[in-house]
Design a protein that fits this description.
This protein is α+β, with helices and mostly antiparallel strands. The chain has a domain of 77 residues. It is built from 3 helices and 6 strands. It has a two-stranded antiparallel ribbon. Strand 1 and strand 2 form a beta hairpin. The longest helix has 33 residues. It is elongated and about 70 Å long.
Length: 177
Amino acid sequence: RPRSACAGCTWRHVCVSAAALLVLAATVGLAVALGLLLRPPGWYPETSNNRTGFLCDDRATCILASQVCDRVSNCRSGEDEQEKLCSDLPRSLPGYLVFRCSNPTYWVYADQRCNGMNDCGDCSDEMGSLAACPPCGSEWWSCSPVLYEYCSCVPRRLCRDGVQHCLSWSDEYICRP
């Protein structure tokens, strides 16, 4: 009699444990499917223009890297301007929000890399090996070297605007807006 009672007790524990595991697995599966698993603030989803961003505490709003620590609260709770995050730029920012220029004393926000502008001052954010930018798109005119704030491409809207942007003047004589 004690053996059958013990065997029944063990079987009951197995059934209860299996049922509890099934409920837990179903809960986790549902949370994953609905995107409700806890993600830490600042988790970096892709923003609407496929740039790495900063996820606000509401877990729905994603802002561009350059909107973090810009003295404007872009998240409802203001977590993008918290002192802990903004106290010692760029060291206090998560690495995915920062692009380090070839000159180690300079940095830019990650979404400023490959934007066509010379944000680093030496074009390392546009042409450097760490930048890995795609070639100029159809909205850009390729010429190198470029003068002023651009690196290897000039926006076509600046073609034939009466201002030299390419050292070769090709933006004024060859390029069509």
